[in-house]
Amino acid sequence: GNSVTQMEGPVTLSEEAFLTINCTYTATGHPSLFWYVQYPGEGLQLLLKATKADDKGSNKGFEATYRKETTSFHLEKGSVQVSDSAVYFCALRSGGSNYKLTFGKGTLLTVNP
Amino acid sequence: GAGVSQTPSNKVTEKGKYVELRCDPISGHTALYWYRQSLGQGPEFLIYFQGTGAADDSGLPNDRFFAVRPEGSVSTLKIQRTERGDSAVYLCASSFSASGGVNEQFFGPGTRLTVL
Predict the structure, then answer these.
(1) CA of B73, closest CA in chain A: separation in Å?
(2) CA-CA distance, B101 to A113, in Å (whole number)?
(3) A82 in helix, strand or coil?
(4) What is the pLDDT, as a whole number, of residue B3?
(5) Is the predicted pLDDT of residue B20 greater than 90, yes or no?
(6) Rounded Cα–Cα distance for residues B80 and A23 (Å)
(7) Of A15, A53, A113, A93, residue with least CA distance to B105
(8) Burial of A78 per CB tally in 10 Å (0-12, 13-18, 19+)
(9) How far apart are CA A21 and CA A33, in angstroms?
(10) Cα distance between residue B93 and residue A84, in whole Å
């Protein structure tokens, strides 16, 4: 079956630090990969996605590259801001049930000024 | 524009009671999904509707859980004889379709259910 393993938090950084949140996956077929973000008091929002190997998703300064050889989709940002403080979820969608999202457990990021 | 809305935002009930959780999807979205997020976990799929019919209810944990979408818009998740283990945030999402290029799922803010 499908599964997602992501780096456990919490992660605490200072403003302008470099961010990496690791995500690896197991999936049938050729999954599409996603990062969702949940800001305090808000619903889940799609941050970025990649639908095939070697694709790079990017948004708001965040990037993640679909690495089939390592089954990974690590999230990176070169310089975090206080406003990036949130919970980040790696997710995939694959196989015959390609409407069904499978999520990791989430990583809480806190950025201090 | 209006996003996905869920009511109530919080629900506290006693063990053994019946609860209903409501989801209003984005207008025009034919696909609707329910997920459950337990504390410290990511969301887990419960059920998916295409129009009025439940196309996949394989994620419902047992027969105490049931969901309907009678007119292809608003959906209600119903939980009978609630148990303390049902305490979680219940998330609803909708999309234009379940596949193809317009299948991004938009999530509501969730209903936090607490069973005492």
Answers:
(1) 18
(2) 39
(3) helix
(4) 92
(5) yes
(6) 36
(7) A93
(8) exposed
(9) 14
(10) 23
Rounded to whole angstroms, how far apart are CA atoms A51 and B99? 12
Collapse the DSSP code of B46 into the 3-class scheme (helix H, G, I; strand E, B; otherwise coil) and give the result: strand
Q: Specify the residue for token string 């019946």.
A: B18
Biggest distance spanned by C-alpha atoms of chain A: 45
Q: What distance in Å separates the CA atoms of residue A86 and residue B38, rounded to the nearest whole number?
A: 17
Residues of A in contact with B48 (CB under 8 A): 99-100
From residue A27, give the alpha-carbon distance in Å to each of B28, B55, B111.
Answer: 31, 21, 29
Residue B67 has pLDDT above 80, yes or no: yes
Q: Are B53 and B68 in contact (CB under 8 A)?
A: no
For residue B98, the chain A residues in CB contact (below 8 A) are 98-99
Share of residues in chain B with pLDDT > 90 (%): 85
CB A26 within 8 A of CB A95: no
Chain A's closest residue to B90, CA to CA, is: A43
According to DSSP, the β-strands at A11-14 and A107-112 are parallel
- When CB atoms are compared, the residue of B3, B42, B99 closest to A105 is B42
Q: Which residue ranges in chain A fall short of pLDDT 70?
A: 95-97
Min Cα separation A95/chain B (Å): 12
Residues of A in contact with B100 (CB under 8 A): none
- What pLDDT is stored for residue B25 in this prediction? 96
CB A12 within 8 A of CB A70: no
Indicate if the pLDDT at residue B1 is higher than 70.
no
CA-wise closest residue to A49 among A101, A108, A106: A101
* Structure tokens given for B105: 């799922």
